[in-house]
Amino acid sequence: MSKSVRAASLALLAGAVLATAAPQVHAQQIATQASVKTSSKLGLGRPALPEEIKAWDTDVRADGKGLPPGKGTVKQGDALFQERCASCHGEFGEGAGRWPVLAGGAGTLTADRPDKTIGSFWPDLSTAFDYIKRAMPYGNARSLTDDEVYAIVAYLLSMNDIVKDENFELNDKNFTSIKMPNATAFFDDDRETSEKQFWKKDPCMKDCRSAPKVTGRAISVDVTPDSKAGPKVD
């Protein structure tokens, strides 16, 4: 038998084998896909245990939901703050170096450089509790007990003159009774009503408005360099 005839015979045989095997492979693929679609589990991992969920389910809402049982006084918080927080935030919450300022800033929100502190800006006390519990002290997060967090938050209230008595005790029962100074300056997202007029099924894509009027140019207020070369930097 010549080489060409033998090659042709082998090719025909291989084609026949492939033709026979292809339907079987296709059927197996269909069966596999069907089993994947109908299966609700991927066979990976395991359900989280209740204690594992509890360890991470620590968020605290503005209405107090999520607050753990606990208590702490301003005086206790003062000692804790000096030991665990003052190296970054300053002895009185004034901030050390470029670390965040936590106290003061009352009446500065309309200034060019407002001081956004816990007392001057934050609308809800739960923000302070939630963040401190999850992320502080820096470098040793989640090391504070619930009572210690209550005490530090109580001290922050005192530093911002929201509570006056150093023996004031903050706890999970009176927590939501604390009203923050800037709470009324915040409002719920009202875009569903205030911006509903802009919601259109077919938005305008061309000639939607007249050309804007130029009221000033940067060069006229001396913020654009006259020369093409920039200033030299030492």
TrEMBL record:
Gene3D superfamilies, sorted: Cytochrome c-like domain
UniProt keywords, alphabetically: Heme, Iron, Metal-binding, Signal
Limits of the Cytochrome c domain: 72-160
Signal peptide: 1-27
One term of GO molecular function: heme binding
Name of protein: Cytochrome c domain-containing protein
Taxon lineage: Bacteria, Pseudomonadati, Pseudomonadota, Alphaproteobacteria, Hyphomicrobiales
